Structure formats: C-alpha cells, structure tokens
C-alpha cells in the first residue's frame, strides 16, 4: 500500500511539472514485483491458462496483480500503445518484434470480439508492451553476453512497476516518452535516422580506383564520385558531369571527409572511397546499432563527467550539460581494444612509474629482451624478482621471465609520460600522457594497448584538481621537474565513461566514424535475428 501511495505522489509531482524538462522515468530493480493493479470498469475475467503459452513470469505476475482481469478497456490507451509499437523503428527497434500486425487486426475487430478474444488481445498487448518497455529502456540484447571487455552495470528494470505507473497516469503518451533514453547523443542518433530516411533509394555500383586522385586530375571514376557526392548532398547537381576533378568537387570531398572523420585534404584515396561506398542501407544499420548501444549505457552520466567516444578519438568534459573542454585521445588498437566502462576519477599520479602489463610483456618486452639485453637499460626498465630484489638484465632467464616484475622509472621517456589519471576498473586501464605526442596528429589513433592517452593532459589535470593555489600549472611543473612520483587525490566528483558509437548528427548533417573494432555489422545481424 505504501508503494502505491508513493507512486501516486510521484505521478502528482510529474503532472504538476509538465513544463519541466523531460527526465528519465525508468524504475530500476532486479526482482519481479507485484504492484497493485486496479482494472477499469467493464474488465473481463481472464483464464490463467491463456498465459501459459507466453512462458513469461513477468506477464503472469502482472495479471496475478490484476486478479486475472483485462486492463486495456480504454480505446484511447490501446491506440497510443499501438501507435508507439508501430513507430518503434524510430528508436532503432523492429515493429515485428511486438506482433503489430496481429494487434492491429485485433484492434480493427475490437468492437465485435467475444470475451475470449478480448482476453487474448489484452494479454498480447500487455506482453508486447512489456517487451517494448524492456527494449526501450535496456536494449534488446545483453552486451555482457556479447563482449568480454564490457564492464557497465546492467540497468535492471522493474517492468511491472513501470507498467502500473503508466496505467495509473492520465498522460500515457508523455510517460512513454519519458522512458526513452534522454542523452543528447541518443536524440542526435534519432535525428540522423530521420535525415537518412529523407534520402531516396540508392543503387550505386562500388567505386574502384587504381591510384589516388588529386585536384585537377582527370579520371573516369570522378563522374561516379560526383554522383555519390550529389546523393549525400555535398555537391550541387549540374547539367553535365565531367571526369575533371575540379575545385567545386574538391570542396565537396573535403566536406565529406570532415563528416566521416577522415583527413580533410581533398585527396581521394582508399579511405575516402571506402566511406563513399557505404550504401544508405548500411548507414541506416549503423545508426540502428548505435541506438541499441545507447540503451545499454548509463541512464544518468552524472552532473560532471568525462565521456570518451573511442571511434571518434575524442574526450569531452561535460558539466551541467555544457561541454567545457575537449581533448584528442589515442585508444586501444583492434587487437588490444579499450574496454567499455563507467567509473569515477579518483587520483592523479605525477611522474608515474610504469609496471609492464602481462600482454605487453608477452608480446613486446620479452621478444625485445631476447633480441637485445640492452633494451632494458635503453628503456629505463628495471627487473624485480618476487622478493623485490633487482635482477640484472644479464642474469635474466626466459624460464623465469613471467615471474619477474618490470618497472619503467619516471621521466621524459616513460611510456605513461608525465601524468596518469586513475579510475577504478577491472582492466587496469587509465588515462595518461605519452612520450609519443606526435601520434595525436594521426587520423587513425587506435594505437595503444588499451589505456587512453590524452593530448594536453596537464591542462585537464589542473582542471580536475581544481586548486588554483596548490595545483596550478606552475606548481605542477615544479613537481614534474623533480621526477619524483607523487599521488594526489581528486576531490571533486567526476564520473568517467569510456564508450563506443560510430554515428550521430550535427546541424542537420549525418556524422559517421570508422567502426575501428568491427562491431557494427555483427551487432546488427544479432539485433535482427
């Protein structure tokens, strides 16, 4: 009874604040609950045997709470739900998953259905709506079953409590809207899907070039390239298309390259051709898988947080929904992917040492030592045995190699650079500086072994420590010059999200990034199977 009263209070507050910004109304809970459901007048008794074929504990628990009576007597509510299920493709979902054709047929005949069919309609509508709520708020698939490097907490949802709340609310459509992911990227993905749907069907053949095409070149492929640019609205349609790579086409190519995260140089090479060869269908599938990912991500990012989009090689610091700063980053390469995780920043380490992790030890360091024992001295790496004693490079034995600890001393040539920023996680990854700052000028920056290297990390560190007196850049520089390791706690609460998405929209323009870990196509196949 107390739970029901709490729900009523919540509904009253929501109604009184209709003009306020829409926020998430997802109720997160692991167990199946049995909230009290009060059927409307003229409800029909349901034979519990009709529930058996659905094999759903959640569905059975819900109808047990209704005392096995129908709940969808309101034609208006049924139409709202049917309309929502029919347009579920706007959320990247598949209307066929919700039996929309059968439900629509039931609705057309609703005035003449007997009690048995009305009960069947009611159950099917509830079952489909429950599934839609689950898919909408938590995604269709479970990423923890798909990926080993996934470390985001599952958003357990109490579907029946949500459904009860919806039933008891006068504004069903508004409440459904509040269940949808509220993050700006999700909204930009939905807009991208709408933009893509405005384009006509494409029937292009794959583009092929034998060598790069530079401005002012003449090449027969330029005609087909221009047609592709016209399709994507980068180039205006002219009366005649020539094979000359003129200035107008070069400007269009640069716009296209910028939208796809390519080198904006006007040179038509393999990477630009590969992006031009994506069809409308492939781009639509790419947007759909990213909509699914955003249903997996945390419902609340935090008041102040760092978010990294791995394929965009970009770190953004957000506070009160404003982007305060951005940094280029280097992420894990395909064989050593950066993990997907959420955490909180806890500590800064100046002049860090670097303990070589097992994968790098096995694949990089041991082969280098076998090739040249002086590698250790040149890399400023010391070897320690299990008792903490130093092992001479010339006493090092391959048979004992994995039992040693390899530590690179602080300094200019340390692999972590001058600073690292720690956030608890099971992968032992962190943010850090680098001794290869020239790598930030590369377009493809999937180059690390899983950790994330940050451009201009000292400026980010100064902001995070938030102490103009003790931790300004001048004081930080003094610490760095000492080459002594120092640990400093981050006092402000800053959440951290390391995520992956390859599509969105900006200013009515479709934005795409290379799927550097080759996840999109496989995910789409799983979503539609």
Automatic annotation (TrEMBL):
Active site: 432, 451
Domain L,D-TPase catalytic, residue spans: 304-480
Any Pfam family the entry gives: YkuD
Record InterPro entries: LD-transpeptidase_YkuD-like (IPR052905), LD_TPept_cat_dom (IPR005490), LD_TPept_scaffold_dom (IPR045380), Peptidoglycan-bd-like (IPR002477), PGBD-like_sf (IPR036365), PGBDSf (IPR036366), Transpep_catalytic_dom (IPR038063)
CDD domains from the UniProt entry: YkuD_like (cd16913)
One MF term in the entry's GO annotations: transferase activity
Keywords: Cell shape, Cell wall biogenesis/degradation, Peptidoglycan synthesis, Transferase
The keyword Lyase is assigned to this record: no
Pathway terms, separated by semicolons: Cell wall biogenesis; peptidoglycan biosynthesis
Swiss-Prot/TrEMBL GO biological process terms: cell wall organization; peptidoglycan biosynthetic process; regulation of cell shape
Family label: Belongs to the YkuD family.
Name used for this protein in its record: L,D-transpeptidase family protein
The organism of origin for this protein: Flavobacterium yafengii
Lineage: Bacteria, Pseudomonadati, Bacteroidota, Flavobacteriia, Flavobacteriales
